[in-house]
Structure formats: structure tokens, C-alpha cells
Amino acid sequence: MRPTAAPPVPPVLRTADRMIPHRLARSAQRDPVGAARVREWIADRNTARAHTVSRVTFEELDRWGFDTRTGNLRHDTGRFFSVEGLRVETDTGPVRSWNQPIINQPEIGILGILVAEHDGVLHCLLQAKSEPGNVNGVQLSPTVQATRSNYTGVHAGKSVPFIEYFRSPGDGRVLSDVLQSEQAAWFYRKRNRNMIVEVDGPLPVGEDFRWVTLGQLHELCAVDNLVNMDTRTVLAGMPGGFEGAAGTSDRGLADALARSADTAIGGLHTTGELLSWITDRQTEPEVRTSLIPLDDVDDWRRAPDRVHRDDEAFFSVVAVDVASPGREVSAWTQPLLEPHGIGRVAMVVARFDGVLHALMHARVEPGYLEAVELAPTVQWTPRAYSSLGLEPPEFLDVVTAAEGTDRVLFDAELSEEGGRFLHARNRYQIVEVANPVDDRTTPDHQWMTIGQLTGLLQHNNYVNVQARSLVACLRGLA
């Protein structure tokens, strides 16, 4: 008689971790002393990993050059990214058509943070990393910050540490995993995979990595140009994180934030109404974009060391030579986009029946995969507006009127992505208003709770990178 085969072992059912909110709240407790130690470590790594970035001519670039047929600036492998031209035509806004250079980077990179418990407290593994465009050298980066060309070895450099936890997330427990856009005025349909993966127990790390709590990270987000853009965008997607505020009888800011983040508490609009509004804003404007040869872009010219507009507005494309010990490749050359002037990014918030709401802007930008994403209330580059003779954006006066008062809840200069942009910075602010400015709400602006906003962050292409930075900063206010 043949033996009976053993029945298959059923898979282990995995349930939602209902302790995540409490674990995050414990990790988010304020820790100024711990944050100060992280700053000392960053200063030490800045000394140890001091990099040099020199402006050079385009002819001095190694393996980069202008295509003889199109004028596009590209790497000889065809990988990494290229600088091409973009033609834009739209039926909305004060400027209805234009051409511009834009970075085309079709490959999807990984921005990932590993988390693990140390002595019962959740910690994030962050990296002290220098980027050629950073204004101050080393900044606090995610565990992994790598393009596909980097982590597949096109650069012929060292392997990316910890990449295996994000390429094979079964080795850990995925807390967040979503494709998100980046600066759509400078990138053409660029997206990165934003991931948070929990591992069992602390892993051994090198001197360029450090485990930090959420509380320490929140403290550091308020320091100028310290926590880089990639860390902020991943942090924004952390599930929960606003728990542990004051009791419901307290109408203070912490309670208003906690109530706002509670998805069981209603806002001025239902989530269904907000999704309908977003869909309407995405379908209402007609935005047509097409990549064109860089040589065909009007009003821009190529000099030996930069591509720039005749009126010196917006940005230039420049070339740099980089020496950066500790990176996967220690020396290289590349193009960078250099913005002209420091921008201003502000989120206006207000309390409705004790629930904090953010005033979000459905903003059109040429590089979005969809025509529109949710942006902060104000997203403004003064030099660009003045060069076009445009009036300041709606609600900027509300933000400036709060200057010097306790209604400014957050105010710091934060850097944008240093791997593609040279010294790109914005002044980020969160401003609370007592008068919710209802009578001035435009069709392109809408109030929503923090829970509704963070719910959208679990999906692709709803919330832009500037708004995600401010969501990360909002967490620190709780």
C-alpha cells in the first residue's frame, strides 16, 4: 500500500499590526538630546567624507556629451538620465505655451528606509550621504537612495548597502511601498519607489549609517538643509505617526493634529468628494507635452559651461566634477540643473471644530504623469514669477501676514534632491490661520484633513514632492 501524502501546510495568515500606531507614537517622543548627537555625527561624517564639487565646461565631462543630431545632453551608455527639450501647450494659467529643457530619467529608483526595534523602540536606519548638489555636503539620507543604474551596477562602482531588503522585500515586512513623483517643473514624468521595510532586530551598520528614532528625525527636520528631500518623501508615507497627542478635551495643536489624522473623524468634505474634486481637476485642464530636441528649445542658448535662457530666468544646466570619498564611485563628472533663486513653499492650515485641515492646491506642472497633483497652498519661485511679469500666487499674502507671529508653526530652509540639482533650496513653512479664508477658496484649492491627505499618500501620483516634505514636517508638530 502506498503511503498517503501529507496534506499541504496552510500558509500562515498575517494580520494588520494594530500596534503600529502605538509603536510609532513611542518612537516619535521628543528627544532633543538624541537629535543633538545625530547632528554631531553628521558633522563628523562631513569632515570624514568631505567632497569637492567644481564647475567645469561641458567638454570636460567624462562620458557625457551633446548628441550631434538632437543636441540632447546624455551619457554614452544611454542610462542614468538625459537633458532634453520639452514643448508644453495648455489652456490654463497665465502662460499657455512654452519650451524648456527638462531632465528625462525614465528608470525608477528606490528610496527606502529600514526600521527595526531597539530596546522596544522603533528606529529608522539613515545614512550620512553627500550629493554633488548639496549646499552643505553631507545630509541625512534614507537607508537606500539609488537609481536603477546605480543598484544594477552600470556605474561599475561598489554595491549599494542594504539594497536586497528593498529589491526582495520578503526579507522584511513592508510598511509602505508606493511610486511617487518628483519635481515636475524639472523632471519629465520622474518617479521613485518610496519604501519602508521593517526587519527583525537591529542590523550591524558601518560608520556612515545610524539608527535614529522618529522623534530625533522630527527634531532634525526643523534644521536648515539637514534632512534631505528623499528622507522627507519616504517619511511622509509612514503609516500613522500622529498618535500620542493630548486628550480630546484639549483643543491645542497636538490634539487638533491627532483628530485630523484620525480617519474615523470627518472633515469638511468626504474622501469621496475629495477624490471627485481631484479627478475633476485632473481632467479639466488640457495639458499637452512632448519631448523635443534640446537644440529646438526657444530662447535658450548653449554656452561652453551652461545652457541658459537669454533673460537668465528659471534655471541653468551646468557641468560639475565631483570627488566624494565613501560613495559607490569616488569621482565622476555629470550635468546638474541649477535653479535661480530660493523658492517658497507654504501650507496654510486651519481648525474646523477642533480638527486641523490643510488647504491643498491642485497644481498643473508639465512633468507630471497626470496633469495635476496636490501641492501645498503656495509653491512659488519669486525670480521666475518676476521674469514673466506675473502677480504673486493666491494666498501668498496670507502666509506673509503671519511672519513674526506664533501662527508660523514651521519655518526652515530645506534642500531639494542633490543628485540632480545644484544648491536647490526652498523655504518651507506651515502657517495656521484663525480665519479659514473660505470666501477666497478657488476651484483649484480645497481643505482636507491630515488623515485624508496621508491616505492619498498610500497611492501613486496624488501628492507632489513639496507637499510630501511638509507632511513629514507636520509629523514633528504632533
TrEMBL record:
Xref: Pfam families: Hexose_dehydrat
Species name: Pseudonocardia endophytica
InterPro entries linked to this entry: EvaA-like, EvaA-like_sf
GO terms assigned for molecular function: lyase activity
Name of the featured protein: Oxidase EvaA
Domain dTDP-4-dehydro-6-deoxy-alpha-D-glucopyranose 2,3-dehydratase: 36-237, 272-474
